[in-house]
Amino acid sequence: MLRADKINQIEQLTETFGSVPHIFLTRFSGLSAAQSDVLRAKIRSVGGSYRIIKNRLAKRAAVGTGLEQVSGQLTGPVAIAYHQDDPVGLAKALMDFAGDHPKLEVFAGVIDSSQVMDADSVKQLSKLPGLLELRAQILAMINTPATMLVRLMGTPATQVVRVLDSNREKQENDS
């Protein structure tokens, strides 16, 4: 690789590491090209990206970024999976794929450009509800009191109608 290409790759990686707050490190030895394509598609479906990196270049690019904290773990064939907004969705996609393909190993991560995670932490993160699920839960919590209020406001009127209906039935039976 030419020196200019290396400098260009370091600049691209530095920009990526500096602008993306959620990054996971993976080892992919033993995955076929077809399996890698499936993994990339799964990660793209949640809005993330997946890229194989050169460790020496990545270590240089990581200086001054959130990934610097785990740059010592960049050994062997390593790829990064990253997402701008949703670390939970990305972790779910990675762990789902790793469950079916044990040759993929998620061994570290950085969340919000500061919080370092090991493999177990990434597994725990993947079990949390995703962004859409959290939004649905919050919406349900907001809607519940309004629904209960409407139901309670309608209860007295319903009871009055039942009393009147019962009285009407009694009068029909008496005549």
UniProtKB/TrEMBL annotation:
Xref: PROSITE patterns: RIBOSOMAL_L10
InterPro entries: Ribosomal_uL10 (IPR001790), Ribosomal_uL10-like_sf (IPR043141), Ribosomal_uL10_bac (IPR022973), Ribosomal_uL10_bac_type (IPR047865), Ribosomal_uL10_CS_bac (IPR002363)
Leader sequence segment: none
One GO term of the biological process aspect: translation
Swiss-Prot/TrEMBL keywords: Ribonucleoprotein, Ribosomal protein, RNA-binding, rRNA-binding
Record has Ribosomal protein as a keyword: yes
Record-level Gene Ontology MF annotations: large ribosomal subunit rRNA binding; structural constituent of ribosome
Gene Ontology CC, one term: large ribosomal subunit
Record's keyword annotation contains rRNA-binding: yes
Assembly mode: Part of the ribosomal stalk of the 50S ribosomal subunit. The N-terminus interacts with L11 and the large rRNA to form the base of the stalk. The C-terminus forms an elongated spine to which L12 dimers bind in a sequential fashion forming a multimeric L10(L12)X complex.
UniProt cross-references to HAMAP family, sorted A to Z: Ribosomal_uL10
Family per similarity comment: Belongs to the universal ribosomal protein uL10 family.
PANTHER family: 39S RIBOSOMAL PROTEIN L10, MITOCHONDRIAL
Free-text function comment from the UniProt entry: Forms part of the ribosomal stalk, playing a central role in the interaction of the ribosome with GTP-bound translation factors.
Protein name per its UniProtKB record: Large ribosomal subunit protein uL10
Organism field: Candidatus Polarisedimenticola svalbardensis
